[in-house]
Amino acid sequence: LPARVAALLDDLNDHQRRAVEHAGTPLLVVAGAGSGKTRVLTRRIAYLLAERHVHPGQVMAITFTNKAAAEMKERVADLVGRRANAMWVSTFHSMCVRVLRREAKSLGMGSSFSIYDADDSRRLLTLVARDLDLDPKRYPARTLSVHISNLKNELVDAETAAQNASNDLERRVAEVYAEYQRRLAQANAMDFDDLIMRTVEVLQAFPDVAEYYHRRFRHVLVDEYQDTNHAQYTLVRKLVGKGDDGLPPAELCVVGDADQSIYAFRGATIRNIVEFERDYPNATTVLLEQNYRSTQNILTAANAVISRNANRRDKRLWTAEGDGEKIVGYVGDNEHDEASFVANEIDRLVDSGVANNSDVAVFYRTNNQSRVFEEIFIRLGLPYRVVGGVRFYERREIRDALAYLRVLANPDDTVSLRRVLNVPKRGIGERAEACVSTYADRERITFAAALRAATEGKVPLLNPRSQRAVSGFVELIDGLRRFVDDGQDVAEVLDAVLDQTGYRAELEASDDPQDASRLENLNELVTVAREFTEAPEVMAPDNAPEGIAPVEQTGPAAGSLAAFLERVSLVADADSIPDAEDSGGVVTLMTLHTAKGLEYPVVFSTGWEDGIFPHMRALSDPVELAEERRLAYVGITRARERLYLSRAIVRSAWGQPMTNPASRFFDEIPPDLLDWRRVGPERSAPTRATTWGGRSSESVQASRQRASPTSGWKDGPSLSLSVGDRVNHDKYGLGTVVAADGQGPRSTATIDFGSSGTIRLMLIGSVPMVKL
Ligand code: ATP
Ligand code: MG
C-alpha cells in the first residue's frame, strides 16, 4: 500500500480496519460508546478517496450536528486536501435544504422559501386553530404541533391523516394539519419536519430527480444512525436506491449504537438499527468492543446501568487503559450545595494541575437546571459556557429582528409579518389585524397583499386611524426593502431595521435593565451579520464527477440576506460548543441530550434524583424509563478519566422546595466503583427540609452509614397514600394527593397544597403529615 493509505489504517484495530476497507455491500457498524464509530466513518471517507479513487463529489455523509459535519470535513481535508470540498457533509436538515432549493419548483414553492422553527410553527398553529374555532384549552398549539410533527416523521400527509383518523382528536389534528400546510405553502415556508418529508416526496414523485441524485451519490454514510426517524430512514433508502433504475445501489455505511438512542420523542426508532440486516439483506455487520475513550471503572458503570434494559443486544465495552479513578458520588443538601461542590471541585482539579477548565463538562437533564450552576460560577469567577438553553436565536428581541429580515427576504412570510406588525407598538391592534386577516381569507390573498389593500381603504371595518397606521407600516417595509434591493449588506440592512422601526430607540429609552441586555443582544446580532458579510460561507463549487451535471447553485447567493437567514435557521444546539483549542479555558454546561457524540476528560453528571433524572414522566412508564437509562449511559460514557455523579436532597421547582429520592440509577452502579464524598446532610446546619422529618440530621446520617448511601432511608416508617387522598401537613396545610409513585423507601406523593403549591414529598421517616 502507498504510505498515504497505510497511514489511514495503521492506528485502527482489526475490526475498525475491516469496516474502513469493506466494499460492495451495505455496512452496519454497531458498537458501544467511544469505540471509534465516528473515527471509522471519517477514515472510511478518506480511504474511499485515497485508495478506491472515489470522486469526492460522489460522497454524501450525514452527521447529527452542523458542528460534527464541519469537523468531519476538516478531518477529511487534512487527509486528502481541498478536494474534500466537493463532498456533501451535513446534517439531514442542511442536506434537504440544499436539495429543496434546487427542486422547490417541482413542489410548487419558490426556491427562497423560509424555514420555520418550532416557535414560528407554533405561532402559525395558534392562528390556524383560532380560525378553525378550536378551544385553545383542549387543543393547545403545543399539542397540535407534537401530533403534526409525529405524522410528518411517519411521512403521513394531511389527507391520509384524515382518512385514518378514528377519534375526535385525530380528526381535529388532521383538519388543522391540512390548513396549516396550506398556510405554510401560501407563506412560501416549510417547517423543520417538512424539510425531510418534502425531500422524500420529491424523490418519490419524480423518478428523474431521484435518478439524478442516485447517479450523483455513490457513497452514503450516516453517523448516529440510531437517532434516525422513519422519514430520515426512508430518505436514506431513497438515496441509496434499489437498483431498479439501472444503477447499482449506492454503497451505504451506517454507524450507531442502539443503547444511545435518545430521540424517541422526535420519532427516532431503534428499529432502524435493529432491523438493518432485514432491510438490507446482503448487509455486513461489524462489531466494535474496544473502547478508546474511558477508564475501565467508567465503562463498568456504564455497562452495569445499560444492562438493566430489556431487549438489547448485550455487548461489553472494555479498554486496555486500566481501571482509573473511582467514580465520585456526592449528595448535596439542596441544588445550591450541589452546584458549590461542582464549582469547588473544578477549582481544586485546576489548581492541582489535573485538568483545565476546558477539560470539564457539567451535564443536567433539563435546560432550566443550568441557572444554579451559572450563578455560582459567576460568583466564583469560574469561566463557563452554556450550550443550548434559552438560546441566543430564541430570544425575543433576536426573533423580532430576524422576523423583519425574513419579511424583507420573503414578502409572503405571514408568520414573520404578523409578528412584527405591531412591534414596536404603532397602533395596529389585534382588531385591525383580524380585519386584515379576514379580508385576506375571503379574497384568498396573502396577508401582505391584504395589508396593501388596506392602505387603499379596501378592507372593511378598519377604522381610519388603523388604516393610517397600516399605511405607515407598509411604507416602512417598502423603504427597507429598497435598501435590500440596492445591494446593501446584511449588517447595514439590520442596522436600518433597528433604527427605522424605532426598535432600538424604544429599548434605549427604557429603564428596565432587561432592555439594556436586549440592546446588547441586538448589537451582538449586528456583529454576527457583519462577520457573515465579511466572510460569507462560500459554498464550495459543486465539482460533480465527470459526466454528471453539477447541482446548480440555486440556493441564495453567497453573502445575501437569504443566505444569512438560512444559516441562522439551521444553527443547532451543539453548533455553539466551543472547540477544545479555542474555548479559552471555559467549563461547558449542557443537557445530556446535547452531549451525545462528545467526550471530556472530566464529567459532572448532576441532578441524579428520581423525578429529575430519571424524569418524572418515566417513573411509571417502563418504555420512558428505558430511554432515560440510555441517557444515563450516554452521560456516563462521555467521561474519559473522571466522572462525578451528584444529587440534591431538596430542589426547588416552581418556586417550591421538593424532596426527591436518589436516582434509581445510582443503585444500578456496582457500589465498589463509587467513592462517596458526602452522603447526607451532616455538614451544614439542617435545612428546612431535613428537619421536617422530625429526625435530627445525625440520626439521618447514622442510618445512612448503616446501609448504602442511597438506601439509607430504608428503616424509616412510611405513610401509604394514593391518588385522591386528603392530607394535612404541618407546614403546607391541607392538600390532595395528585400522584403517588414508587414503593417502600422510594414512595413519594405529589400533593396539591392549594396556595402553598404542588409539592412532591418522600413518604419515609416520620412525615409531619396525616391522612384525613
Ligand atoms: P460515540 O458512541 O460516543 O459517538 P464513537 O464510537 O463514535 O463514540 P469515537 O468518538 O470515534 O467513538 O472515538 C472515541 C475516542 O477514541 C476518540 O477520542 C477517538 O479518537 C479514539 N479512538 C478511536 N479508535 C481508536 C484507535 N484505534 N486508537 C486510538 N484511539 C482511538
Ligand atoms: Mg460518535
From TrEMBL:
GO molecular function (one): helicase activity
Q: Which residues bind ATP?
A: 31-38
Root EC class? isomerase
Domain UvrD-like helicase C-terminal residue range list: 296-597
Please verify whether the record's keywords include Kinase.
no
Chain positions covered by the region annotation Disordered? 684-720
Q: Which keywords are on file for this protein?
A: ATP-binding, DNA-binding, Helicase, Hydrolase, Isomerase, Nucleotide-binding
What domain of life is recorded for the organism? Bacteria
Return the PROSITE patterns for the record.
Answer: UVRD_HELICASE_ATP_BIND (PS51198), UVRD_HELICASE_CTER (PS51217)
Polar residues biased stretches: 687-711
**What EC number(s) is this enzyme filed under?**
5.6.2.4
The UniProt record lists the keyword Glycosyltransferase: no
Residue ranges annotated for the UvrD-like helicase ATP-binding domain, each copy included: 10-295
Q: Which reaction does it catalyse?
A: Couples ATP hydrolysis with the unwinding of duplex DNA by translocating in the 3'-5' direction; ATP + H2O = ADP + phosphate + H(+)
Family recorded in the similarity comment: Belongs to the helicase family. UvrD subfamily.
Concerning NCBIfam families, the annotation shows: pcrA
Protein name per Swiss-Prot or TrEMBL: ATP-dependent DNA helicase
UniProt source species: Actinokineospora diospyrosa
